[in-house]
């Protein structure tokens, strides 16, 4: 292959195209808002160690991702969503690059490593996490670097101490991103699978560097937790509550995660076939490495399934070994697809890539029908996306019929890039709320009326983030505080309207506006009460 020597450069370019373009296209979600508020209060109030959210302690998650977010915001601006999401995109880039290096070490095959890295970079939840300022991508990204260094530590004789110390530092960074999540869901299944397949050889020469790894890991992981527990008594109760959530919050059945392969998006069918171990084990070029990635996946899913608390985004660590596993199947298609005669092997390939090509070809018509109510003002992006997907779809069908599976694979990557470049700006066409009124406009109201506005009882992170600074909440530990001003504003959620009236029975209450930050209007099923507030002016009689 002509560009075999430039795989790293190509990965950099493709990841930049997928992770860094249109980072500010989508609205800030609840998980991001929490992180961004904490970053803002780090910069504005200096709360770098005893972290806060809207002025209250925020120790549920360690601070490293928020530090990185705050550093980016300090450079590019606290109001820049692109800047706030940039560290997550960079973290995902490192995850993909070190996964490529790990795959190359496992097999000594660059083309396989390149395929696996591209599958990872374009898997649905990897892409979503790269463009989302939340914690998960950090903890798993740092852990992948740790795993790569541990692989070197266990398989190579030189630089044992260097690899052990660096692995400990990155383990600590992972722990400082989201606690023991990645240790449990990514590192532990890796270590078990490695022990089963490759064995831990020459362990006597490694025990002292291993102790060094454990010591460095512990110190880097534990110091912030020690600091918060020592200097803020509230930290112990917050930590206890967060730990309890693992067994009492978002409880799902054991089998909840067992459609995990669908989280890879366009690679759902190849990922599923890659898991058919009896079928693929004699077709892959490296049976040992394939068994290793297969066991790594299954152990990770089983361990995650044992935890009562379950959320779909917790499957992110599974997508990492699954991309390496899927890469074996796609590499097999690269080598053998032109020779395959059995329809049971070719039909899934034609269906998977044919479906993607079909979507590209019908998008100009189907997209217009779906988006016509909001396409005004977005014609340029619609035309560009239609032309790109139509061209890619035609080329995919052409190469699929000619059995040029490598070309079809790379065109699938181009399909994802086209959606990121031209499709994300079109999100405005499907997020139409005629009553949209952001919380940032409250400042103009406060200045005009010369009053202070309070939140009645609920802290919705997206609203506080958009407001731009801390907002005082009248409900303090189930005790309502009455403002000292004779005239003030109160923001009230729909669920709290009756309680608001009961709390201020002897006050004059005048509803003056609704601040609604829902992407879609009140008639939509996705219109959420938590994203709007009624503003009342309250006056003492």
TrEMBL record:
Kindly list the residue ranges recorded as spanning the membrane.
Answer: 67-100, 112-131, 137-154, 161-177, 183-200, 207-226, 255-277, 289-308, 314-334, 346-370, 376-396, 408-426
| Compartments where located | Cell membrane
Which superkingdom is the protein from? Bacteria
Return the Pfam families for the record: PMT_2
Q: How does the protein associate with the membrane?
A: Multi-pass membrane protein
Instruction: Tell me yes or no: is Disulfide bond among this UniProt entry's keywords.
Output: no
Task: List, for all copies, the residue spans of the domain called Glycosyltransferase RgtA/B/C/D-like.
Answer: 61-225
Q: What are the record keywords, sorted? A: Cell membrane, Glycosyltransferase, Membrane, Transferase, Transmembrane, Transmembrane helix
The family database entries (PANTHER family) matched by this protein are listed as: MANNOSYLTRANSFERASE YKCB-RELATED (PTHR33908), UNDECAPRENYL PHOSPHATE-ALPHA-4-AMINO-4-DEOXY-L-ARABINOSE ARABINOSYL TRANSFERASE (PTHR33908:SF3)
Protein name, as recorded? Glycosyltransferase family 39 protein
């Amino acid at each position: 292959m002509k560009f075999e020597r430039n795989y790293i450069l190509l990965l950099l370019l493709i990841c930049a195209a997928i992770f860094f373009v249109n980072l500010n296209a989508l609205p800030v979600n609840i998980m991001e808002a929490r992180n961004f508020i904490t970053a803002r209060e780090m910069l504005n109030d200096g709360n770098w160690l005893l972290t806060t959210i809207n002025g209250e302690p925020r120790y549920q998650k360690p601070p490293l991702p928020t530090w990185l977010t705050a550093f980016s915001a300090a450079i590019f601006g606290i109001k820049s969503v692109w800047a706030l999401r940039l560290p997550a995109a960079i973290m995902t880039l490192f995850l993909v690059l070190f996964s490529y290096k790990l795959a190359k070490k496992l097999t000594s095959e660059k083309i396989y490593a390149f395929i696996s890295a591209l599958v990872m970079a374009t898997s649905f939840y990897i892409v979503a996490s790269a463009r989302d300022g939340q914690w998960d991508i950090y903890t798993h990204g740092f852990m992948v670097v740790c795993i790569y260094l541990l692989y070197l530590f266990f398989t190579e004789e030189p630089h044992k101490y260097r690899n052990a110390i660096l692995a400990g530092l990155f383990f600590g960074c992972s722990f400082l991103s989201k606690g023991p999540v990645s240790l449990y869901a990514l590192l532990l299944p890796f270590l078990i699978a490695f022990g089963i397949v490759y064995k831990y050889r020459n362990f006597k020469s490694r025990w002292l560097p291993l102790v060094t790894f454990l010591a460095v890991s512990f110190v880097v992981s534990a110091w912030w937790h020690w600091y918060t527990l020592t200097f803020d008594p509230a930290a112990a109760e917050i930590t206890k509550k967060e730990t309890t959530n693992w067994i009492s919050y978002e409880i799902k059945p054991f089998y909840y995660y067992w459609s995990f392969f669908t989280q890879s998006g366009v690679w759902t069918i190849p990922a599923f076939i890659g898991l058919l171990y009896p079928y693929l084990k004699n077709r892959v070029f490296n049976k040992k490495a394939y068994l290793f990635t297969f066991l790594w996946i299954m152990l990770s899913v089983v361990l995650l399934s044992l935890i009562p608390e379950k959320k779909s985004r917790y499957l992110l660590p599974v997508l990492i070994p699954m991309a390496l596993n899927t890469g074996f199947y796609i590499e097999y298609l690269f080598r053998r697809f032109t020779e395959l005669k059995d329809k049971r092997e070719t039909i899934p390939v034609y269906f998977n890539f044919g479906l993607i090509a079909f979507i590209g070809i019908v998008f100009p018509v189907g997209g217009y029908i779906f988006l016509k109510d909001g396409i005004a003002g977005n014609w340029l992006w619609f035309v560009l996306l239609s032309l790109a997907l139509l061209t890619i779809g035609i080329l995919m069908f052409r190469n699929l019929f000619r059995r040029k599976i490598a070309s079809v694979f790379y065109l699938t990557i181009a399909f994802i890039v086209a959606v990121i470049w031209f499709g994300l700006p079109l999100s405005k066409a499907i997020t139409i709320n005629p009553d949209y009124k952001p919380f940032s406009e409250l400042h103009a109201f406060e200045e005009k009326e010369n009053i202070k506005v309070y939140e009645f009882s609920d802290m919705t992170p997206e609203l506080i983030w958009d407001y731009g600074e801390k907002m005082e909440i009248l409900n303090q530990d189930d005790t309502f505080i009455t403002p000292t001003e004779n005239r003030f504003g109160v923001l009230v959620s729909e669920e709290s309207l009756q309680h608001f009236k009961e709390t201020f029975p002897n006050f004059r209450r005048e509803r003056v506006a609704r601040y609604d930050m829902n992407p879609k209007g009140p008639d939509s099923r996705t219109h959420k009460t938590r994203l709007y507030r009624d503003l009342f002016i309250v006056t003492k009689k």
